[in-house]
Automatic annotation (TrEMBL):
Keyword Nucleus: no
Residue intervals of the Fe-containing alcohol dehydrogenase-like C-terminal domain: 178-384
Family to which this protein belongs: Belongs to the iron-containing alcohol dehydrogenase family.
InterPro entries: ADH_Fe/GldA, ADH_Fe_C, ADH_Fe_CS, Alcohol_dehydrogenase_Fe
Name of the protein in its database record: Alcohol dehydrogenase, class IV
Residues of the Alcohol dehydrogenase iron-type/glycerol dehydrogenase GldA domain: 9-166
Stored PANTHER family: ALCOHOL DEHYDROGENASE (PTHR11496), ALCOHOL DEHYDROGENASE 4 (PTHR11496:SF102)
One MF term in the entry's GO annotations: metal ion binding
Pfam family of the protein (one): Fe-ADH
Organism: Alkaliphilus peptidifermentans DSM 18978
Amino acid sequence: MNKFLLRPEIYYGSNAIDYINQLKGKKACIVTDKFMVDLGFLDRVTKILDDKGITYKVFSEVEPDPSRETVLKGLNHIIEQKPDTLIAIGGGSPIDAAKAIMYFCIQTKEKLVEKELIKKPWFIAIPTTSGTGSEVTAYSVITDKKTNVKIPLVEDIMIPDVAILDYELTKTMPPSVTADTGMDILTHAIEAYVSPKASDFTNIYAEKAIEIVFDYLIKAYNDGEDIEARGKLHNASCMAGVAFSNSSLGINHSLAHSLGSAFKLPHGRSNAIFLPYVVSFNAGLRDSKIHNEEVAKKYHAIAKRIGLPASTLLEGVISIIEGMKLLNKTVNIPITIKEFGVEKEAFQKQLLDMAQSAYQDICTSGNAIAVTTEDLISILEEAYE
């Protein structure tokens, strides 16, 4: 028996943040980062809460790639305050942190409820970037700062009750962040589409997200005020999140996690750089021949859907690979790890550790085909040069 979960409630469009006016609670906790506070993004939320007489406290200690320590601080914050509403606002890091806080709330639920310390708060996620899809997924990634390892958590209880896709909040994203997050959408959607767990239901969301990225990413990159392009990408991020949360991710994410941890590279960029090489590997593209036909057929279908040359299986796979490289170049994302400025000696020193970390990553089990550590070393080496 298979399962397809549709949550949360989604409110979208310009000024969708007005949903906050519907809240009936008395006490809220806002999880965010200092950047959101400094930009004044919180003001739109707190003004509504003030007008409604809802008291709130702000936990703004979330850092990029939130750590376990930060999540535990946030958990203590929740235990002390006992809010009936939890609001996460920001990019993937604040939303992931809030989800992890929710995860640990539930993990310790029985003891906490027995002591009347907490009840599950109504959970609202407000993304300000278009990429992670975290507002609709059962995934959260936190980082063990001592071992420098990213730890993916998976639990349906982490899915927010409400996702607010307010297009106006994305207009301040600089071009580089627009590019990174846009390629993150594409990676989510493509990995979901070729996942062994993909279905008719997940494919609908993945296919549309892929189309939108190819149609609108460059427009949003070139003109941040293009609200149509911003809105389309914001929707696509959410769609891709629904797709991969109900299917799986694969080694593209595993490799991006390990590379990002080793060299402090942005997650979206790390994903973008691996995409062409992972497609080639999964399709079994060697010696100008396709060796994994079943997977290759899925990439071929993507190429046809977005209007790339695909008269044969081989042509379709090559087209999607070259299309990804061209998209990366157009939005100024390097197509090799070397172009990121990673020195060869430092890369070689980390190579085995990165491959082993990627192999052990939770996303690896969801890849289109099975892999070995040696396969991951090979992809890393190819992506470097």
